[in-house]
# Entry
Amino acid sequence: MKQVNVRIGLLACSTVLMLFASGCTLKGTTKEFTDTTSNVTGTTSGRTWWNEDGLLHPEYKLTAFMALNQTNVEQDLARGQGEYVTSLGTLLGLSSDQQAAFHAKAQGEFEALMTSDHEARLQQLRMLAR
# Structure
């Protein structure tokens, strides 16, 4: 009887430990995610990307869009069409009349865009939009 109680106690303790251990992992994962997000949204000048209302400052919209949608933007750029490259054109200030020309230029420069670093890529996209 005593041995059964000890086993039940050990089982209960191990279950509680596993629950707390998984909670720590979840907490650690959440902290890692929020730290990464903070690193992405921080700038070297010390200013944040967000205003008091929680909205992105206009000057960071393009950078955030590219960072969050990189794979989809790359696929659309390679095809020369799609909702992501259209949204990219809109963020660059293009009208609907200018979109087709931008899509064609961006597709033509796809290789150069993909081999450059993030900041250079944004500058190249801004140049293509002119």
In short: The chain is about 75% helix and 0% strand. The first helix runs from residue 2 to 41. The CA atoms of residues 89 and 99 lie 6 Å apart. The chain has two domains: 1-41, 58-128.
